[in-house]
């Protein structure tokens, strides 16, 4: 990763700073139900404000696809933003045109404005040059603190970086530093855990990890496809039978790259995909036709745990089982707790990310104990796949 332009290089006093943040927050009954994303960008907003910059927040919310939809208005997150910032935030009804310029022109040094959802304009996702120019009229510099949106080349995530002096915000910097330590410059041995539902969504991820890690644990529903490809009867488990050749190919590539693949050696099976449904532990040769695998068994947990204890770096995406349905959260929970403990003891650097992974770790009560938990879903995965993220590339020196 080339070096990024950061806030250490710029004097923001008196400048209009267009700051791209991720405020795409989960809502329940009109209120923010999880403010993690606000917490992540607070340091950058506060630093810019304290240094006398006029902070102009740009963000998207939901998927209005170029339409002005009340349900996707950023106005609804204003109270939560002000509560966390302990400061008034002025709201502009549009991110371009007179509503935006009137608010921006009235800002004094250190004050903060939030502009309406950039995706109310279809030109945002098209990265339209004229729209980029309209956005740029309200800024002297551009700061991008939204790693989670950096895999999209949109006007406010990539376009602006080409027309204004552009810098990475503190949260973007921290995220990239953590990722660098995970795969580009890690302490070895490195173990990756890839779980979740389907192999088809994580093929590029597996291919990249095979070349970068010493151990690759394949878990969750996707492990069934690998087991089946090796001749195991997985009953009525979630399984992508058509991907058997692909699974065998991944196993072959791992062998060539000296990466040890770890698949479950025992499993928890049930007849229904339901919480608290009767279940039992069995070996791989005892799965009946009317049963489905919903979690890894105790021997598999012990096996992964023993490897974890010998590793220095962990990269984790995706749960070990159907963690939303107890007791099938056991594998994810116990291994997450073990990784957290090793991290606290200073023996392991643990990096996890992706939507379901964050909820699984939070459910296990360990999200705070990992070295770094990325709240970025798609961007985190694309980075692990070894892709260039346009929003990051535009900030490189
Ligand atoms: P992903 O979004 O690909 O990380 O997948 C997460 C989802 O995979 C969660 O909703 C889990 O319930 C699901 N999952 C994990 N293991 C299994 C399994 N053995 N059978 C069915 N679903 C699973």
CATH superfamily of the largest domain: Phosphoglycerate kinase, N-terminal domain
* Rg over CA atoms: 23 Å
- Strand-residue fraction? 15-25%
Estimated helix fraction: 25-40%
The CATH architecture classification of the largest domain is 3-Layer(aba) Sandwich
- Cα distance spanning the termini: 10 Å
Number of domains: 2
Walk me through this protein's architecture.
The structure is a single chain. This protein is α/β, with parallel strands linked by helices and 397 residues long. The protein has 2 domains: 7-171, Phosphoglycerate kinase, N-terminal domain (Rossmann fold); 186-384, Phosphoglycerate kinase, N-terminal domain (Rossmann fold), CATH 3.40.50.1260. 37% of the residues lie in helices and 17% in strands. It has helices spanning 36-50, 78-85, 97-105, 122-126, 129-136, 155-163, 170-184, 203-210, 221-229, 244-256, 298-308, 330-344, 355-363, 378-384, 390-393; strands at 16-20, 27-28, 31-32, 54-58, 89-92, 112-115, 141-144, 166-168, 190-194, 215-218, 260-262, 266-270, 279-283, 292-296, 313-317, 349-353, 372-374. Strands 5-6-4-1-7-8 form a 6-stranded parallel sheet, with helices on both faces. Helix 12 (330-344) links the parallel strand 15 (313-317) and strand 16 (349-353). Helix 1 packs across helix 2 (78-85), helix 8 (203-210) runs parallel beside helix 10 and helix 9 packs across helix 10. The chain is elongated. The protein starts with 15 loop residues before the first strand and ends with a helix. The mean pLDDT is 96. The structure holds adenosine monophosphate.
